[in-house]
Each structure stands twice: as structure tokens, then as C-alpha cells.
Design goal:
This protein has about 130 residues and is mainly β. The chain has a domain of about 80 residues. The chain has one helix and eight strands; from the N terminus they run E-E-E-E-H-E-E-E-E.
Length: about 130
């Protein structure tokens, strides 16, 4: 399988590309329900719903009203958005809610913001 460099990655909020993305991460998880009964010798679980949580890190650009400002607005006024996370031409898609926004200001670096999200509904990978 061919290796993929991260430079082809990008993030879209609704139909708008987010400017100055330095990284994104996403973790798919399956919710497991415990079904181990008394006197069972081994644990048992059944698979439940799948979800995704992650972060998007950007170099702050206040002029990116359709991307970065839209993510901040989604944190401040809770709303779901269409989120596409591209590795290259393949991407994850889901409705998502943004939960947190953090800033990192340093004398030796550009201002960075980190946004955390959680999926809301169906997740696809194409």
C-alpha cells in the first residue's frame, strides 16, 4: 500500500475549506455494551454505535470567516455543521458539534487555535 503524506490534508466546514490548518486528528470508536453474566468465565460485549472525536489545529486567521470563525461560532452557539476531514482525496464526513476551542499564544510561534469536535449521526469514509 502506498504511503500518504499529510500535506494533502484539509478540513471543510459545510462547503468551505478552513484556512491555515496545521493538523487534524480523528478517533473512531465503537461503543461496547457489557453482556457478561454471572458465572461466565470470559467477558462478553456487544458492539453498539460508532462515533468520532477529534481535534483541528490552525494558525489563527481572523479573516477566515467561513472556516475558523465558523468553528468558533459553533462552539459559542452550539450548532452542528457538516465536517469533512481529508487525508488526501479520501475523507471522513459527518455532521459534527464543536465542543471546545483553545488558544496558544507564544513569543516564539504564531498564534494557534485548537478545536475539539464530536460526530453527530452517520460517519462515512470515501
Amino acid at each position: 500500500m502506498a504511503k500518504v503524506h499529510g500535506k494533502g490534508g484539509k478540513v471543510l466546514i459545510d462547503a468551505n475549506e478552513v484556512a491555515e490548518v496545521s493538523s487534524w486528528s480523528g478517533d473512531l470508536t465503537t461503543n461496547l455494551a457489557e453482556t457478561t453474566a454471572l458465572q461466565d468465565d470470559f467477558t462478553e460485549q456487544v458492539a453498539g454505535p460508532v462515533g468520532m472525536t477529534g481535534t483541528i489545529e490552525v494558525f489563527w486567521d481572523s479573516s477566515d470567516t467561513d472556516g475558523q470563525v465558523a468553528m468558533m461560532t459553533a462552539v459559542l452557539t452550539p450548532a452542528t455543521v457538516n465536517l469533512r476531514l481529508y487525508e488526501d482525496s479520501t475523507h471522513y464526513f459527518s455532521m459534527a458539534a464543536f465542543l471546545e476551542a483553545g488558544s496558544n499564544v507564544s513569543i516564539s510561534d504564531a498564534v494557534k487555535r485548537t478545536y475539539s469536535f464530536t460526530s453527530h449521526g452517520t460517519i462515512s469514509y470515501t
